[in-house]
Design brief:
It comes from Anaeroselena agilis. The protein contains 7 helices and no strands. By secondary structure, it is an all-alpha fold. Helix 3 runs antiparallel to helix 6.
Length: 229
Amino acid sequence: MFMHNKELLQPVKVERPNPTYAAMLTEQLGGPQGEMKAAMQYMAQSFRIKDPAIKDLFMDIAAEELSHMEMVATTVNLLNGHDVDAPAVAAGHIESHVLMGLNPALSNASGYLWTAAYVNVTGDLPADLLSNIASEQRAKVVYEYLHRQIEDKYVRQTIDFLLNREEAHNTLFRQAFNRVQGTSSTQDWGVDENARLYFDLSTPGKYFDIKDPQPPVFRTPDPGARQPQ
């Protein structure tokens, strides 16, 4: 069961309409790293999870991603303004102005419609968690690109909030991954001799080796630690 709270997760506003940037921001509404993809992926993955704590985590984050979708769509609405004006869109899609009456499109920034092909579900919890960690990382990167290309202080505040929520989800998925070590596809990691074989096919130089392969383990990020530049 879902319930809709009429208040946004975080209030959004814009300094002025910007239809071209509205088209760009649509990337995070219906693009392959966007909020709809994240919500559908985590929800779909949750259906067969047996661990109640991890199932709850997936559904909590999926529900929040739907809230992010609402924030992005509302911002796109504000950026599009009140009047259809396709010539004002200097780049990207113009469907909102010629087909949908400014309704935010479930598409990427080029107008390609959202597809369930974006959703990754394997039924293997470690594999799905690694996929989700990567999804959150990619989403943060897209938000960082979007942040650099707008001067509107209110849009930047919205993006700051959203990309920091991607970091929170990334951390939570990493904690869940540590919890499932030694299960499913992480069992018997590196036991077979072929799992310890590294092909050095780009000579000169052999910078890595896997004589003693270890499954991936994630530490909880230290917010006070200085990050490499």
